[in-house]
C-alpha cells in the first residue's frame, strides 16, 4: 500500500477555492450585463473553502502576492483526515 501512495504524490489535481454561493433564476441570469455585481452568501473577510474535486481540503483567506490573488491556508485537515475525505 505505501508504494501506491508514493505513486500518487506527484499527480497534479485541480484545486478550487469557493468564495461563496448564491441562487439566481435563469431569467435574471440571462439579463446579466458586463459589470453587474452578483451578491454572494458570504461576508468580505470570511474564510474561503479550498476543495480538491468535491472534497473540502482546507479553509483559507484571500491574499494578494505579486499582484496575483492567492489563498493563505489557515486550517488544514491532518494527513489521516485528508485521505479520509478524498
Structure characteristics:
single chain, 86 residues, 4 strands, 34% strand, elongated
Describe this structure in words.
There is one protein chain. A hairpin with a 2-residue loop joins β3 (about 55-65) and β4. The chain is elongated. A four-stranded antiparallel beta sheet has the order 1-2-3-4, with no helix packed on it. It has helices spanning about 1-10, 25-30, 80-85, and strands spanning about 15-20, 50, 55-65, 70-75. The chain has about 90 residues and is of the alpha+beta class. The protein starts with a helix and ends with a helix.
| Helix/sheet category | alpha+beta
* Largest sheet: spatial strand order: 1-2-3-4
What does the average pLDDT come to?
A: 86
Terminal-residue CA separation:
16 Å
Q: List unreliable stretches of 5+ residues.
A: none
**Shape, please?**
elongated
Q: Helix coverage percent of residues?
A: 10-25%
* Radius of gyration over C-alpha positions, nearest whole angstrom: 17 Å
Strand content: 25-35%
Could you spell the SSE succession in H and E letters?
Answer: HEHEEEH
Major β-sheet profile: 4 strands, antiparallel
Number of helices: 3
Amino acid at each position: 500500500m505505501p508504494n501506491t501512495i508514493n505513486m500518487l504524490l506527484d499527480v497534479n489535481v485541480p484545486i478550487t477555492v469557493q468564495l461563496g454561493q448564491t441562487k439566481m433564476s435563469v431569467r435574471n441570469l440571462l439579463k446579466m450585463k458586463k459589470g453587474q455585481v452578483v451578491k454572494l452568501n458570504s461576508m468580505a473577510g470570511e474564510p474561503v473553502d479550498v476543495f480538491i474535486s468535491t472534497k473540502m481540503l482546507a479553509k483559507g483567506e484571500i491574499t494578494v502576492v505579486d499582484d496575483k490573488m492567492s489563498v493563505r491556508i489557515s486550517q488544514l485537515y491532518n494527513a489521516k483526515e485528508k485521505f479520509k475525505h478524498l
